[in-house]
Design brief:
This protein is α/β, with parallel strands linked by helices and 170 residues long. The chain is built from 6 helices and 7 strands; from the N terminus they run βααβββαβααββα. It binds iron/sulfur cluster (SF4).
Length: 170
C-alpha cells in the first residue's frame, strides 16, 4: 500500500446505518482522505459498486438474508482486510435475539402476511459466514476506536484489539 491510496469500502447488511453515520460524522475522516480512496459506501450511494477490489472492507449489520450471505462472500473475495463494525456485524445485534423462536413466527409478528422478494434468515454475525480480520464493537463503535483502527491500517500497521468495558463507568 506504500505511496498508494488505501482503497476503502463501507458496506451495510441488515442494520440501522448508525455505524456508517458515526463514521460519516467524524471530521477527522477528511484528514485521512489524502491517504485513502472510498471505493464503495452504501450510505452515500446504495447502488455503489460492491464488485470493486478494496484494501479494507468495513461491514455493518447482521447477515439476515440469503442475498447478504452472497454479498459478504463477495466482499471477502474482493477485500484484503475485513472489519466487522458494530454489535450487529460482530454479534448479530438486537435482531438476533429471537433465536429461541421460529423465524416464520417472528416474521409474522412483525410483518404479518407481507410478501417479500428476498429470502430471510435468522440474523447472524458476519464471521459465521466469512473470515473476519478485525472487529470494532459498540452500537455504534466509538469515534476514537474507528480512528484508531483506520489510522493504524492507513500507516500499514495492525491495530491491537480494543477492550470494551461492560459499561463506561467500569
Ligand atoms: Fe445500528 Fe448499532 Fe447495528 Fe450499528 S451496531 S448498525 S448503530 S444497531
Amino acid at each position: 500500500m506504500e505511496n498508494e491510496k488505501v482503497r476503502i469500502g463501507f458496506y451495510a447488511l441488515t442494520s440501522c446505518y448508525g455505524c456508517q453515520l458515526q463514521f460519516a460524522m467524524m471530521d477527522e475522516i477528511l484528514h485521512l482522505l489524502d491517504k485513502a480512496e472510498i471505493e464503495c459506501w452504501f450510505m452515500v450511494e446504495r447502488d455503489s459498486d460492491e464488485d470493486r477490489e478494496v484494501d479494507i472492507a468495513f461491514i455493518e449489520g447482521s447477515v439476515s438474508t440469503q442475498e447478504e450471505v452472497e454479498l459478504v462472500k463477495k466482499i471477502r473475495e474482493k477485500a484484503k482486510i475485513v472489519v466487522a463494525v458494530g454489535a450487529c456485524a460482530t454479534q448479530g445485534g438486537v435482531q438476533s435475539w429471537g433465536k429461541d423462536k421460529e423465524l416464520s413466527e417472528l416474521w409474522k409478528t412483525v410483518y404479518g402476511d407481507a410478501h417479500v422478494k428476498f429470502e430471510p434468515k435468522m440474523a447472524e454475525p458476519v464471521e459465521k459466514y466469512i473470515k473476519v480480520d478485525y472487529k470494532l464493537y459498540g452500537c455504534p463503535p466509538e469515534k476514537k476506536d474507528f480512528l484508531y483502527a483506520l489510522g493504524t491500517f492507513l500507516v500499514g500497521s495492525w491495530p491491537e484489539d480494543i477492550d470494551y468495558p461492560v459499561c463506561v463507568e467500569c
